[in-house]
Amino acid sequence: MATAASGHDLRPSYRAAALTALAVLGLYVVTLAPTTAMWDASEYITAAYTLGIPHPPGNPLFVLLGRVASLLPFGGVAYRVNLLAAVCSALSAGIWFLVAERVLAQWLALRWVRVVGAGLAAVLSATAFTVWNQSVVNEKVYTVSLAFFAVVSWLTVLWCDDPDGRRADRILVLVAYLIGLGYTNHPAGFLVAPAVATAVIVRRPRTILRWRLIASGALALVLGLTPFAFEPIRAAHHPALNEGEPTGCTDRIGVACTFSDTTVRRLMANINREQYGKPNLAERQAPFSAQLGMWWLYFKWQWLRDPYGTQRPLQSMLAFMFLGLGVAGGVVHWRRDRASFWFFGPLVFTVTFALVYYMNFKYGASQAPELAGVEREVRDRDYFYLWSYSAWSVWAALGLVALWRLAAERMGQGARWSWTAPILLLGALPLVGNWRAASRAGEWATREWARDVLNSVEPYGVLITGGDNDTFPLWYAQEVEGVRRDVTVAVTSLLNTDWYARGLLRRPIERYDEAGGPAVYRGRRWPVPTRPIMSLTTAQLNAIPDYLDVREPQLFQQGEIRAVVDPRRLEFGVPLRSDILVLQMLKDNLGARPFYISRTTAGYAQSLGLERHALVQGLVTKIAPSPLAAGRDTVAVQGLGFIDAPRTLALWRQYGAPAAIVRRGEWVDRPSAGIPALYTSTALVLAQALEQQGRSPDAHRIREAGLDVAEAAHITDWFVGPEPIVPPPATGSDVRRGTPVPASP
Amino acid sequence: MSSSRALVLRAAAAVVIMIGYADLVRGGTVLAPLALVLGYLVVVPLSFLVE
Fold first, then answer.
1. What pLDDT sits at residue A723?
2. What span, in angstroms and rounded, lies between the C-alpha atoms of A201 and A156?
3. Mind telling me how many Å the CA of B4 is from chain A's nearest CA?
4. For residue A51, which residues of chain B lie inside 8 Å, CB to CB?
5. DSSP A557
6. Which of A106, A338, A500, A524 has its CA 20 to 30 A from that of A489?
7. At A226, which helix (H) or strand (E)?
């Protein structure tokens, strides 16, 4: 029987850990998203379902796991992939139970007290806001990484127990393998390596001189990295999602093209995430103090998520309490179980301070809103610190147990554990306080948003989008649910890469399903396009530069369109590759395919000089082949331009997202609140157009419906009140818009 | 030295993973992920742990 120096029984309570993990899984299932969500959820679910390649580094292990999850025989595809996140986090909670119990076993004699303390660690780590919120939808691959961290943690704890035992070497080799394998899920997989190395060097330094063991570990690590082979093989089949296109094969897989220089170059560019071009670490994107401030902001979210800022004092108080409990727990860990501390302490340091330094973020999207003019991340990045908050929760639970023990001792006559147990209810505060914000149960808005946008586009239309939230949900709708596959979606942020346009050229023309489309398009003949989306060859596409160093207004002329493209109105002051390709697509499709620009792009049509051709139809702007003039259906609205009132009204009546947003009554993620804002502004503009047409009752109903959406999303103040705020663009993108251009000609 | 059980598991891991990649090359989207997940996440770790 395993015993500690204290004489306590060290046998892990595997059954209790398993039951705890099951309970956590139950919590996650109850609060699980039924479908997709904003940001990367749609991209990853689509990648899993199509066995495709998501954005660099491509996450091959996640794609394989996600694909297996998508094959489960119940629920919808998105639900099944979301379940993968829930299972990974529940597994992690079960393992944190074991780690916490091991520390407590070195300290406390009563087994039931240890089990309660360990359960507390599991519950706290599972209900910290970001962990919970990321575990109920597969928005990122980080819950899989968390599971790897937890498994490696437990294996290292076992190794620390007996570094000379017969199993010790095998455990170390397995840890090396899992670190490599974890890297193929996400590079964060390596974050656990410094902690393992510290534990090995402190606990048994001679280990690093055993060259046979080191060589075995290195081989195992390399074996763990081999799932990257998935990328070039699968990419050669050109799945619907083939980001980075890490293959030299142009039409079919072959030995020569797979083992070509092109494949190696593209694969390495994917693995090294060259597309993102992060600056050197010495060039800080924000002061390090501000970057730590971002971590602290999200730390406060963990114990009470307060999305609308109504409980700030309570939130801060809880944050300081859990910070103090975590520090106390770290001290307990150091004093009572030094062996495992030498792993866990460095892990907390790595996923907190080292990660903050390494990620080198700009100011957070929600951080210090009073600071104007600072560069910000397009969204809140709390998910990058999910491991930090999860691990911190284990220490906070140890700190709470220390508090419990102190209170029990103060009772006198020995430790009255049961009398003072109510103090542990502090650990349930995140469960209660975060439930509403962390839960994604009943969240259908993103799926409906994707359908609404696609259905706003006439059959066989081309739709230009701008970033993540107006693109990824559309990929999901088209590739997973088969909605409006006739529409060609082209996102400007990716048009600046070399591979994306090649994929657009390859995309087959899908037949429009009239029965599944909106009623407004029925009963008309929609000619099927016969030509690819662009008239360029692959060689011509590859030859387009990242940008044109043109500073003077240029005339774009095609048919009746005469647009003056003024580079000063473009985001970077010069036409980027994406702008050139958008104009090329407009030129090639005028009269052949309806051409649209999503209204999420915040005036992109205007920046291309297309104001006189821009006609709002619901959530999108159609580029009309002829200059527009106000008429019976085309209404000129001040500050907007022209709106097709009957079409927008017909589409509005079919939109599903407004009802979904109102039913949910929450929009926790503030950086994406531009999506509900777009619905509200559409309703208000439509109401204005209807008023101009003398249809006051219809106008009133639409206006009220739009304001209901704003109220549900807690953005009413953006539209009404003494100083309405101009809604921010509805979308953002993690992909750089292009190569930095010179400041002067 | 590895036991015969560990060697058998390592051989099984190699076979399962090779089946996965062979199906992936063929364009398979069901057997390939199943075999690769089984190989990488179950059989290989077991082969390291077994005496």
1. 54
2. 12
3. 15
4. 29, 32-33
5. E
6. A524
7. none
The answer to whether A53 touches A64, Cβ cutoff 8 Å, is no
Q: Which residues of B touch A230 (CB under 8 A)?
A: 24, 36
Among A77, A80, A234, pick the best mutation site for testing chain B contact (most B Cβ within 10 A).
A234
Is residue A177 less than 8 Å (CB to CB) from chain B? yes
Return d(Cα A645, Cα A592) in angstroms, integer.
Answer: 24
Sort out which chain B residues have CB atoms less than 8 A from A174's CB and list them.
Answer: 45, 48-49
Structure token digits, residue A102 = 């091991």
Q: Compute φ and ψ for A365, nearest 5 degrees.
A: -60, -35
Q: Each residue of A306-345: pLDDT tens digit?
A: 999 999 999 999 999 999 999 999 999 999 999 999 999 9
Rounded to two decimals, what is the model's pTM? 0.94
CA neighbor of A398 nearest in space, from A318, A335, A354, A346: A335
Min Cα distance A163 → chain B (Å) is: 15
Work out the angle at residue A494's Cα, subtended by the Cα atoms of residues A660 and A516, and round it to the nearest 5 degrees.
40
pLDDT at A87: 98
- Specify whether the CB–CB gap between A185 and A148 falls below 8 A: yes
CB contact under 8 A, B29 and A65: no
Residue A118 contacts residue A16 (beta carbons within 8 Å): yes
The verdict on A531 touching B (C-beta cutoff 8 Å) is: no
> Is the Cβ pair B40, A253 closer than 8 Å?
no
- Identify which of A286, A277, A293, A273 has the alpha carbon closest to the alpha carbon of residue A361: A286
Which of B27, B29, B45 is opposite residue A174, by nearest beta carbon?
A: B45
Q: Answer yes or no: is the ipTM higher than 0.95.
A: yes
Q: How far is CA A109 from the centre of its chain?
A: 44
What pLDDT score was predicted for residue A720? 78
Q: What pLDDT score does A327 carry?
A: 98
Helix residue ranges per DSSP H, A71-210: 77-105, 111-127, 129-135, 142-161, 168-185, 193-203
CA atoms of A649 and A176, how far apart (whole Å): 60
Alpha-carbon distance A682 to A216, whole Å? 62
Residue B42 at interface with chain A, using a CB cutoff of 8 Å: no
Contact between chains at A65 and B37 (C-beta distance less than 8 A): yes
Identify the residue among B36, B38, B46 best suited for mutation to test binding to A, counting A beta carbons within 10 A and taking the highest: B36
Check CB contact of A219 with chain B, cutoff 8 Å: no
What pLDDT shows up at residue A678? 95
**A317 and chain B: CB distance < 8 Å anywhere?**
no
pLDDT under 50: residue ranges of chain B: none
Whole-angstrom Cα distance, residue A550 to residue A573?
Answer: 9
Q: At what angle do helices A142-161 and A60-70 cross, to 10 degrees?
A: 110
- In sequence order, the β-bridge partners of residue A376 are A363
Q: How long a stretch of residues is chain B? A: 51
Min Cα distance A382 → chain B (Å) is 28
- Spatial separation of the C-alpha atoms in residues A284 and A709, rounded to whole Å: 39
Distance, CA of A250 to CA of A180 (rounded, Å): 30
Task: Kindly tell me the burial class for residue A330, based on how many C-beta atoms sit within 10 Å of its own C-beta (0-12, 13-18, 19 or more).
Answer: buried
Q: Which regions in chain A score pLDDT beneath 70?
A: 1-8, 413-415, 721-745
